[in-house]
């Protein structure tokens, strides 16, 4: 006899939205979470009054009105606009690449001057068919931007030289010919006041949650506990890695509390030279315009993934996509299992896409 309608594996955003909607429709949900906290990668922890993004900086941004209105039921969002800074040696640049960046780099003032400078550098490089990422980037933005803002950062991220990386990784490098440092082009943007964890806690109200509980161990002892399973863990793990491992890129976070009130004056600072081992430093208080007397910073280091490491970014190259498709075929044959979220779909999703996908799964499930 099933005790629950849904066994939901994972308390990240996908699982939590699904649980909220199913509970609202009178269904009983049991949530299993392997970690010792809910929220998946959007989990925030309060340290000295500062909401620390434990799994990397999370800025909510969307152009999907339904999703924006949905998430606003569970939190009030502030007016944070993501405007990252790049540090290259002693030089400080605005991101994304825009007129402030070009002006700082070349001392120019107008869009026409910036366009001419880039066109001149692209022409001088004379690359017709880029053979690697370096050539691809130079053929798109010219030498200066590549050298100071793309090269070192990308090499750290991938752990190898841009000359040894395939050109397809960078399809385009957006250039903005306005003085606009807003990183995102979306209609709505912000940070939930009080962090993301309270949103997840509200979404999970009315369900039962078991922390520190791994699905694969649990289900052996409790087969048939629910009518259906919503699985938001890793796709290849669900099938016992029977076809092989899907590859990811990983990250290492080093968090430090500092006895000063302001470390870097901005939430996100990218370090674009190869010599600095971290790619970014996040100063969490600036996401919520914090005025606390101390601060918390996190250095982000790229990490080569190996089985067992935390999976952050899927490597959607041809080899991995072929494997993922074979797993997806197996998933399609699983009755009574709904696969959802970034790990089970082996896709990079922003938070708004995860919410939209969970709401879509609910519509399908309840024919509504
Ligand atoms: P997850 O959050 O990973 O949740 C899955 C949960 O399942 C986890 O808690 C995991 O512990 C649990 N689980 C897995 N396997 C098992 C098992 N066998 N048993 C029990 N539990 C299990 N998006 C944005 O919109 N804006 C941003 O600025 C942004 N920044 C990001 C920065 C980084 C570094 C990363 C990696 C992602 C970022 N994202 C951002 C994307 C965002 O994190 C995801 O969209 C979102 O967290 C995905 O939610 P999910 O539920 O699919 O997965």
From TrEMBL:
<protein>
    <submittedName>
        <fullName>UDP-galactopyranose mutase</fullName>
    </submittedName>
</protein>
<keyword id="KW-0285">Flavoprotein</keyword>
<dbReference type="Pfam" id="PF13450">
    <property type="entry name" value="NAD_binding_8"/>
</dbReference>
<comment type="similarity">
    <text>Belongs to the UDP-galactopyranose/dTDP-fucopyranose mutase family.</text>
</comment>
<dbReference type="GO" id="GO:0008767">
    <property type="term" value="F:UDP-galactopyranose mutase activity"/>
</dbReference>
<dbReference type="InterPro" id="IPR015899">
    <property type="entry name" value="UDP-GalPyranose_mutase_C"/>
</dbReference>
<feature type="domain" description="UDP-galactopyranose mutase C-terminal">
    <location>
        <begin position="148"/>
        <end position="348"/>
    </location>
</feature>
<dbReference type="InterPro" id="IPR004379">
    <property type="entry name" value="UDP-GALP_mutase"/>
</dbReference>
<keyword id="KW-0413">Isomerase</keyword>
<dbReference type="GO" id="GO:0005829">
    <property type="term" value="C:cytosol"/>
</dbReference>
<dbReference type="GO" id="GO:0050660">
    <property type="term" value="F:flavin adenine dinucleotide binding"/>
</dbReference>
<dbReference type="Pfam" id="PF03275">
    <property type="entry name" value="GLF"/>
</dbReference>
<keyword id="KW-0274">FAD</keyword>
């Amino acid at each position: 006899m099933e005790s629950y309608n849904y066994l939901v594996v994972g308390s990240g955003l996908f699982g939590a939205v699904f649980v909220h909607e199913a509970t609202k429709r009178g269904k009983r949900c049991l949530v299993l979470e392997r970690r010792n906290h809910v929220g998946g990668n959007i989990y925030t922890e309060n340290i000295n009054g500062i909401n620390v993004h434990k799994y990397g900086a999370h800025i909510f941004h969307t152009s999907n009105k339904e999703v924006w209105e949905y998430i606003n039921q569970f939190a009030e969002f502030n007016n944070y606009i993501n405007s990252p800074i790049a540090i290259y040696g002693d030089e400080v640049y605005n991101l994304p690449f825009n007129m402030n960046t070009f002006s700082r780099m070349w001392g120019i003032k107008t869009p026409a001057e910036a366009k001419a400078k880039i066109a001149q550098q692209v022409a001088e490089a004379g690359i017709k068919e880029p053979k690697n990422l370096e050539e691809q980037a130079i053929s798109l933005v010219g030498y200066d931007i590549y050298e100071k803002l793309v090269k070192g950062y990308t090499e750290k991220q991938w752990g190898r030289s841009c000359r040894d990386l395939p050109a397809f990784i960078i399809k385009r490098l957006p250039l903005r010919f306005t003085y606009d440092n807003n990183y995102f082009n979306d209609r709505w943007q912000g940070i939930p006041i009080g962090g993301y964890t309270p949103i997840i806690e509200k979404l999970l109200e009315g369900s039962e949650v078991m922390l520190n509980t791994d699905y694969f161990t649990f289900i052996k002892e409790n087969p048939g506990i629910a009518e259906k399973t919503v699985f938001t863990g890793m796709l290849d793990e669900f099938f016992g890695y029977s076809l092989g491992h899907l590859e990811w890129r990983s990250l290492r976070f080093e968090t430090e509390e500092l006895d000063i009130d302001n470390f870097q004056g901005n939430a996100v600072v990218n370090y674009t030279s190869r010599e600095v081992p971290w790619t970014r430093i996040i100063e969490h208080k600036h996401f919520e315009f914090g005025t606390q007397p101390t601060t918390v910073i996190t250095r982000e280091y790229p990490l080569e993934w190996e089985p067992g490491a935390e999976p952050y970014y899927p490597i959607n190259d041809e080899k991995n996509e072929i494997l993922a498709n074979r797993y997806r075929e197996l998933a399609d044959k699983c009755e009574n299992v709904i696969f959802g979220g970034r790990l089970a779909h082996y896709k990079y999703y922003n938070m708004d896409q995860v919410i939209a996908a969970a709401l879509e799964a609910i519509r399908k499930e309840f024919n509504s």
